[in-house]
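User: Show me a protein chain along with its predicted structure.
Assistant: Here is one chain, sequence first, then structure tokens.
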Amino acid sequence: MKKVVVVFLVISFFASLLDSDAAFAKQFKHIMDFFDDKGTIKTYISDIKNSSGDNNVDTRALQSAIETALEGRRSHNIDIVSSESDADMVIDIEITEYFFTEEDPIDMVFSPVAAAVDAAKAENYVRMQIDAVATDAKSGRELWDDHVQSTITDDTMSEEASHGMAYERIAKNFIKELFRKPKKRR
């Protein structure tokens, strides 16, 4: 019986080593738990990757919108730095989808009446999705990752204007998700 317990403990130990980054990230309930002792969090945003298939997506404009949103955060003091070696936190972003259409998809399906009203309206629609990862710059350990989406429906929005609107909305949603505190379980 002792051999079984010892073998189990050894296997458990090695299994925990394999998933140490996930265990490390789970010990923090909120991304700011990692930076509690810092007055200012120096943040570097890597070059944004565009795998959306839309060549009109401006990754620099999106990066600028995210930098502005981070620096404008009132509850946390965040400075954007130009070099990863100067950073406390590194953010990597990949644009996975950018979709614009002049025919708003029917997405209000919670009742037949709402779906009929949504179908009757002629509105333009844009959806943008990103995958984002925040890592500790010193150790390289992943602190947070998420898939973030934004949608905008507007009858006067042109395709050209949709880009800037989508960048601002996805930056807002990114900030909301990055600093979201987990819900308490009852």
